[in-house]
Amino acid sequence: MIPRILLLVVAVELMSCSSTWVKSNYVPKRSNFEFDAYGSYIKVTLTEGKVIAGELIGIRDDSVVVLNEMAFTIPIKGVVQAQLITHNPNDYAWGYASILLTIANGGFAIFTGPLWLFSTAAAVTTETQKRFRTYPAIQPKGSKSQLMSPEEAWNEMMKFSRFPMGIPRQVELSSLTKRPGKSTRH
What we know:
By secondary structure, the protein is an alpha+beta fold. Helix content is 30%, strand content 20%. The protein has helices at residues 2-16, 93-101, 109-130, 150-158; strands spanning 41-46, 51-60, 63-67, 71-75, 79-85, 132-135. A six-stranded antiparallel β-sheet has the order 4-3-2-1-5-6. A hairpin with a 3-residue loop joins β3 and β4. α1 (2-16) runs parallel beside α3 (109-130). The relative contact order is 0.20. Residues 14-19 and 182-186 have low confidence and may be disordered.
């Protein structure tokens, strides 16, 4: 019985994870998100098809600044699409470990094990989906709310930049250093 439950846990975990185009050390963890000094990771597609990805620094003079190996100043008018990952979700190992602890429930483990499994998988899936922002804004299926204007979409993304209130004039873009970690090429 236990090997089947473990197999089920692994299968649900793999289904609930969304694949991303960024390594986990390039974006802050949710647990220390508000204390992180760096911006979140963004991938910008330009009108000519070129893709620039890296840390979102902020907006200066109607241009978005992305830091990779160097700072790229991209006119917002030249952006076709932008995708931002705000943070890494929390570690939900506790939820899956609790599935094993349902053995203490005896015969009720048949009911409590799957309940823990599916509730944890739902939490992981929801948290994973909430961490993405896009430009132009994508309206969720079934939503009756209005789409964000382009300005609102960029303002929403700027909350997750290194300089959310705009890049100060005295900041030299060439002096910025990227988030510690491996290369941001993908």
